[in-house]
């Protein structure tokens, strides 16, 4: 006696199952079991990264069976077996449920297809196109049971539980494939996981989420929620319109009972939907509401990135200078290889995208033909479907075809976005070398004393550029740093400004270590006049006010008078509203330096740092600027880096540096009397100036 007659006898005698409710409970348990098994088994290959291990295996193209290969094959074999077992269960317990039969058959065919393709993917792991193709096929095949629409909402409702389980299973399979793409995309790409743009996707999403959700504005948060509501409403309308089309077609088959309300409802929903993703009332409103959110995200991200760049140490910025000889050499030697590799990569990319689109078209075409034949057969021969069901099927299939047609392009765009986002967050994750200590306090009421004790600094470990330097500067005094190029003068200025952290020793302002002050408050007390003045392509008024943005126009003018540039500005047609050009190209070297001095005077700092402020100027201009600098440093503590010794003859203390150490110290007269390095430098510069004067006199 076969198993089916035995079940019929049990049903007839009421032995088992007892009744329809018991039958549903058994169906629930068995279906839930297979859903869980299917979900777990699908995750096996990604657990432990077996796909990656299999690809990294040098013998993957041979017949050698590794543990990773065995686990991957067994996982696919298991889902085929569970599809067969569940097919048998449906056949014996629900012989008239077309939905579950279609579901089981589609699953069975899909996993057999995966099993057959597994060997090819194993031997030739290429781009994620294989995985994308599998995902497209899974979605299409999973949607085949939707053709049995009549069994969804039958009068008795006996299949609603089955439909619920089907939707749960569809969601789980979609989730499995999504996580497979996220966790295993690099496994099929032929690259290591560190190079995958999809690697650490969850971490990237967590990092970008604060910039998408506008935490600083409740209004924008409400906009986000409402936009999500409009998005969901649009998707529901996309699902509802084919159903309305089916009902309208069925109603038109019997014109006497046509309800015009269906036509009005369909027209209204079409107005809301528009032409799919583009147009439509809902999409227009959502786009309009989303503009401020997009601007917020862009602004917050750029401001945060700009702020982070400014907080990075000078070491970080100097290490990324362009035009270095080694970099040019490296690019020159690799340029030919880069061109060749680019051509190969471009060809592979185009071929892969073309192959993906070809496969997608084949899937949709086969699905359209097979599904249409099936629906027509059910309409003509089985009499279980109507003409409206055919309209419903073709509409849903076309809706599925449109996004799949752009799958390759969207994948490339998303991957590029992930790469760009990863590079951006890598930059934002660069450690800030110089930062405020937790107990740092603001620096106020500066008295103007500086004490450097046993200071040592290394750019690279083991190669100190400042070696055990000590000196003190009193309030209102000026200290000059002189020496040959590379002696450590500019580095010492950078350490005083706390652009670097000292390796050993300490720097104290008013008796307190600079690390105990907040960097912002410390730098507010310091004014710098650099050799190359940074000017913005804006007005003279704006460039001077940059020293103190809250200064009034009168204060800016007073600072310009103190820097002896007011008369020059007043003689210009537009006065203080004159545009200076990019990097101040419309101004002469002396005028740019005076703007920098005016900017520093406006800031009203207690400490003045001059970093070779007059080294690039001619002698008459230098003398005029020197008067401005003497006026600027009056009653302020100054540190001057000088190339021309004539500019520091009045300094209270001169430090002669060489290779990071102090060779000589003293006043101008004291150092000349010592007849050492400083005296030699002074005599050399005096002789050079005399030679230039004689040459100039001969020309005249």
UniProtKB/TrEMBL annotation:
One GO BP: heme transport
Localization, UniProt: Membrane
SUPFAM superfamilies for this protein: ABC transporter transmembrane region, P-loop containing nucleoside triphosphate hydrolases
Matching PROSITE patterns: ABC_TM1F, ABC_TRANSPORTER_1, ABC_TRANSPORTER_2
Keyword vocabulary terms for this entry: ATP-binding, Membrane, Nucleotide-binding, Transmembrane, Transmembrane helix, Transport
Chain ranges of the ABC transmembrane type-1 domain: 225-344, 347-416
Bilayer topology term: Multi-pass membrane protein
Residue ranges crossing the lipid bilayer per the database entry: 25-44, 70-93, 99-119, 131-152, 164-185, 224-245, 257-272, 358-380, 392-414
GO cellular component: vacuolar membrane
ABC transporter domain ranges (all copies): 450-684
Any one Gene Ontology molecular-function term assigned to this protein's record: ATP hydrolysis activity
InterPro entries per record: AAA+_ATPase, ABC1_TM_dom, ABC1_TM_sf, ABC_transporter-like_ATP-bd, ABC_transporter-like_CS, P-loop_NTPase, Type_1_exporter
Keyword Glycosyltransferase annotated: no
Entry-linked Gene3D superfamilies: ABC transporter type 1, transmembrane domain, P-loop containing nucleotide triphosphate hydrolases
Family: Belongs to the ABC transporter superfamily. ABCB family. Heavy Metal importer (TC 3.A.1.210) subfamily.
Protein name per its UniProtKB record: Protein CBR-HMT-1
Organism: Caenorhabditis briggsae
